[in-house]
Amino acid sequence: MVSQQELIREARENGMELLPLEKDTYELFFGPQHMATENYSLILKMDGHRVVKAIANVGFLHRGFEKLAEYRPWHTNIALLLRICVPEPDVPEAIYSMAVDEIMGWEVPDRAQWIRTTVLEMARVSAYLFWIMGLSFKLGVYTAGQWAAAYRERLMALFEQLTGGRVYHIYTIPGGVRRDIPGDRWLRELKDTVEYIKAKLKDFDNLLFENYIAHRRLEGIGVMDKKFALAEGVTGPNLRATGVAYDVRRADPYLLYPELDFEVPVLKEGDALARAMIRRFELEQDLYILEQLLEMGPPSGPYKVQDPRLKNLPRLKVPAGDAFAHVEATKGDFGAYVVSDGKNKPYRVQIRGPSISHGVRVIEQLLVGARLADVPVILMSLDNCPPDIDR
Amino acid sequence: MEEITFKVAPESKVKKKPSFLKPWLSLKYLFKKPVTIKIPYESIEPAEGYRGFHTLDWNKCVGCNFCGQICPARAIEMTWIEVDGKMEKRPHPKIDYGRCTFCQFCVEVCPPGALGFVESYMLTTEWNEEELQLFDWVPIHPDKFKEIQETYRDWRFPVEKIKFDKETKEVTYYLRNGEEFKFKILGYGIRPPKPPAKPTVKAEEKAQAKPEEKTQTKKPELDAESEKAD
Ligand code: SF4
Ligand code: SF4
């Protein structure tokens, strides 16, 4: 038998490098083609079925959005930036538009504000349904996931009527929105859909959120404490699950949120179960907010600002200045910092995505000591969004 | 710093208790009608105003290149076209669906409203070599597109085959309803191409350009007539 040292020496003589093997551990490449990771990969160092060390391996979706945004006219960037968050593309649209509105000094009309708020809430509901789909597939409760996909389809049909697109809406633009609401029929359909999904929440509870097996799988894994979460800049439901009451919709209100009533769920455990419960409750609250919005009804008036400069979009110049706008997405605090130097293109667009904190640094810590079977569950409970990490 | 008050939900409302029996209640769905549809016997129609393929009214287009400037994917190339031996006054956009994101910003900015769109959206082929050329085209007139869309209603591309003759630069669109549509591509870009073998004609045109300014405004009508004769 040749010893390891000899092998290494022989390899070096031939211009190769052999790394010494550690006893009982092996390296596992988890993703990017694994269903749970969605174009994102983890390098796991395993001891048996326990994770010893995890390294997030990102970059499979890198398309350089921020740099590309510097070469396109202001409005055109909407068609680019919304790709940063696939499950809820309205969020990047909204933050960019709100920041540009601020630089331009535009007062967005009431009707546009109502539409923007409604679209953001619809996006939240559909993103949570998407998340239920992911979580239940990872737990093995496929039925609940298929329901969620079917109910999300109803929202996609509504989006299609309103915006003309199913997944990428390209709808919110600086100065308002691109189209008006297609009549009262759409509002009635939205109301029906909200009621329909609300009625179905009970079934989700029965099958998924009150399921004994789901509780056993989720409880006590991926525990994050308050101090760690705050130090790493975790936001959104993941932060609320550690006992911090923070929601951008209340902390820094935008659009119509000051007029709306909703509760912020906070739990102390910080494990995957707490995160799942928080998300489930927020889905309920979002449906409640949509009900309130429908009761309010869209105010009459124009749906975008009346500005002669909007006639010449390719050469629309934005005065020099900068602005930051952020909203509460289902993943966390989503913000955009936009700088203009007075040209017809942005000088800089910086996006602050929520996944960069919990998808890279936090996950590496949370996975240590987890079982291999729990890795997808922890990933899903954090609601990681790879395009947002790679942007 | 000002304290923000959150309306925090009571924990009892957020937390759910595990249960052995409740998951079994979902068995009632066994007796319900499924929400899925049976493709190909049933289908989902795109909503009105779905952002699909483009249409272009060649007589209205003034060749201003606004659409090319706003396009985020740079899918638009201005093309100089000759129909029935007569060069169009202004270039028209050629759209490459390999790049297009279907944002329809080009439709929004078009000053005379020449560009439009219809609901047809099927961007698939059977992957024949010649079919790959299909999706790089100068859009056709909205009326013709809508007519084809009404007859077939399968939301596919209205052109079956595009033939491009490299020597004569002649392009033929074979539409799905059997019609043929012929024109010549003279060149690309915002500036007019140099006519290859007719320098005298160009000089004449230049000389006549100034006195003819009044008649030029009438010319599009002539073009319209010649196209109708097609
Ligand atoms: S299609 Fe419209 S925007 Fe494009 S060149 Fe013609 S007139 Fe201008
Ligand atoms: S719809 Fe296509 S061609 Fe038109 S601006 Fe958008 S990407 Fe460009």
Which regions of chain A are unreliable across 5 or more consecutive residues at pLDDT < 50? none
Look at the helices and sheets of chain B and give the structural class.
alpha+beta
Strand order of the largest sheet of chain A: 1-2-3
Output the CATH class name of the domain at 54-157 in chain B.
Answer: Alpha Beta
- 3D shape of chain A: globular
Count the helices of chain B. How many?
6
- Spell out the helices and strands of chain B N to C: EHEHEEEHEEHEEEHH
* Overall geometric form of chain B: elongated
Q: Main sheet of chain B?
A: 7 strands, antiparallel
The structural domain count of chain A equals 2
Q: What does the radius of gyration of chain B come to?
A: 27 Å
Strand content of chain B: 15-25%
Helix content of chain A: 40-55%
CATH topology group of the largest domain in chain A: Cytochrome-c3 Hydrogenase, chain B
Strand content of chain A: 5-15%
Task: Please bin the fraction of helical residues of chain B.
Answer: 10-25%
The CATH topology of the domain at 54-157 in chain B is Alpha-Beta Plaits
Order of helices and strands of chain A: HEEEHHHHHEEHHHHHEHEEEHHH
Which regions of chain B are unreliable across 5 or more consecutive residues at pLDDT < 50? 199-230
Largest sheet of chain A: 3 strands, antiparallel
